[in-house]
TrEMBL record:
Tagged with keyword Cytoplasm: no
Protein name: Peptide hydrolase
Family: Belongs to the peptidase M28 family. M28B subfamily.
E.C. number(s) listed in UniProt: 3.4.-.-
Pfam families xrefs: PA, Peptidase_M28
Gene Ontology MF terms in the entry: metal ion binding; metalloexopeptidase activity
Species the sequence originates in: Tetrapyrgos nigripes
Residue intervals of the PA domain: 125-220
Cofactor or coenzyme needed: Zn(2+)
Keyword terms of this UniProt record: Hydrolase, Metal-binding, Protease, Signal, Zinc
Length: 493
């Protein structure tokens, strides 16, 4: 392992020597250190281990992660070059404490959770399993009833699929309830492992609902089709309540305050695991950029953000962008996002829309160009990452109309088989890749600090000229599920 490791490092440092020359104008640059990147993700993994296996919003592992970031900056920032603060906000917390599905004492399944599903009564419900006959894919109860299905008082097994409201889960849950079902079990419409999903917000039109893997769903459906009557016991207890959490910020005291370059990574994990690639890797990357910055001599101000409650709906970055005073919005030059940068492909956000036709605000193309040029100069192929809105950049581009960019190494099985699972631990990150991505990010940050205002068009906060992705009905805010055709983070509604 170490052999492979050092070969890559050698190749990168040779290329870097050349890069330093090319960018001599960029001023002093302190080297990114792989040991520090490694130490950060090790600390985050340790925090999860000590706090019930996760660092999720509303739970002790998140608070410990906040303390860790604050302490790391304090330990490092001897000469007080940074202003550091936290911003608290209230988000809707959820925790599934009981979730099981069984057909008999010997046949049971482990359903995956749907965030914001209502609970069943304590002790669960027992009812006949109903299916959708034929090849119908109903998105409302009329369509479902038109198939001849009788689901009243039953538990409906239904395939996941896109509905006109822009969702792939919520539309199915509403359909089931509208037709009289007492619970809905949605099975995936792809063979890929499904680790969870979200209903975006609680809604009286929902019934208790959970997810099954495609193979399990199809085999149960076959049995019902063959005439078997399956009496299913289903129980889900989900606590949903408001909890207060925080974003963490650090910004340089030096630099032009009218051209702020902002970098962000989310500090929370899902509740299923430690979240070391997602997003301990991005947390580690921006912390290392802070440490390697010549903070007292930056030409333009740099602000770092560690976001809270990203996994529950981009809540931290949403709160920040919603409450940012207009003057501060005007002063913001660009936002760079680093969510999952530890294994997979070298994904650069497709700012110019050339691959996915989802173009970022003007200037996003410039940022993409800086990143890709750096990677290509190292002989590293890049993959365009679609800006589908699956991470904290969303509100910066959609609501503030700010140029955005960043890196994202992919959520599909091929890129991260432990995505949103318990195995997203320390060993799930390829620290060499994290190291290379951090160097790419450092290069881009330094370029923006030096030349950002010349190369990035800056618009006022009230820009209305750019319609970015169009107004979506369902905001694609979390990347629980990989959409293989669109790389990057994708929809999970
Ligand atoms: Zn993430």
């Amino acid at each position: 392992m170490f052999g492979k490791f050092s070969t890559v490092l050698l190749c990168v440092s040779a290329a870097l020597a050349q890069e330093v020359q090319l960018d001599a104008k960029l001023g002093p640059k302190q080297a990114v250190e792989i040991e520090r990147l490694n130490a950060t993700i090790a600390s985050l993994a340790q925090i999860a281990t000590e706090n019930g296996g996760n660092r999720a919003f509303g739970l002790p592992g998140y608070n410990a992660s906040v303390d860790f970031i604050l302490k790391s900056i304090e330990n490092f920032d001897d000469d007080h070059a940074f202003e550091v603060w936290t911003q608290s906000f209230v988000g809707l917390f959820n925790q599934i404490t009981v979730h099981n599905l069984s057909i008999s004492e010997t046949e049971s399944y482990v359903p995956q959770g749907l965030i914001y599903s209502p609970s069943t009564p304590v002790g669960g419900v027992t009812a006949e399993l109903a299916i959708v006959p034929g090849d119908a894919t109903p998105c409302n109860s009329e369509e479902l009833l038109a198939t001849g299905a009788n689901v009243t008082g039953k538990i409906l097994l239904i395939e996941r699929g896109s509905c006109p409201d822009g969702t792939t889960f919520a539309g199915k849950v509403k359909t089931a309830k509208g037709a009289g079902a007492i619970s809905a079990i949605i099975y995936n419409n792809q063979d890929a492992f499904i680790s969870g999903g979200t209903l975006t917000a609680p809604n009286p039109d929902y019934i208790p609902a959970g997810l099954l893997q495609r193979s399990d769903g199809l085999s149960l459906r076959e049995r019902v089709l063959a005439g078997e009557v399956l009496n299913v016991h289903y129980e889900q207890i989900q606590n949903i309540e408001n909890r207060t959490t925080v974003n963490v910020f650090a910004e340089t005291k030096a630099g032009n305050k009218e051209n702020v370059i902002m970098l962000g990574a989310h500090l929370d994990s899902v509740s299923a695991g430690a979240g070391i690639n997602d997003d301990g890797s991005g947390v580690s990357l921006i912390l290392e950029l802070l440490r390697t910055l010549d903070a007292k001599n930056v030409k333009n101000q740099v602000r770092f953000a560690w976001w809270g409650a990203e996994e529950n709906g981009l809540l931290g970055s949403k709160h920040y962008t919603e409450t940012l005073p207009a003057e501060d919005v005007d002063n913001l030059l660009a936002y760079l996002n680093f969510d999952m940068v530890g294994r997979g492909y070298y994904g650069v956000f497709d700012g110019d829309g050339s691959t996915f036709n989802l173009t970022g605000p003007p200037g996003s193309d410039v940022i993409e160009g800086i990143f890709t040029k750096w990677f290509h100069a190292q002989g590293i192929n890049t993959t365009a990452a679609a800006m589908t809105g699956g991470s904290d950049y969303y509100h910066f581009m959609e609501d503030l109309d700010k140029p955005i960019g960043g890196l994202h190494t992919g959520t599909a099985f091929e890129q991260d088989p432990c995505y949103h699972q318990a195995c997203d631990d320390f060993d799930n990150v390829n620290v060499t890749q994290l190291y290379i991505n951090t160097q790419a990010a450092q290069h881009t940050l330094l370029k923006l600090i030096e030349r950002g205002p010349e190369i990035i068009p800056k618009g006022p906060s009230n820009l209305t000229s750019t319609v970015l992705l169009g107004k979506k009905v369902g905001v694609e805010w979390t990347h629980l599920i990989e959409d293989r055709h669109h790389s990057g983070c994708a929809v999970a509604l």
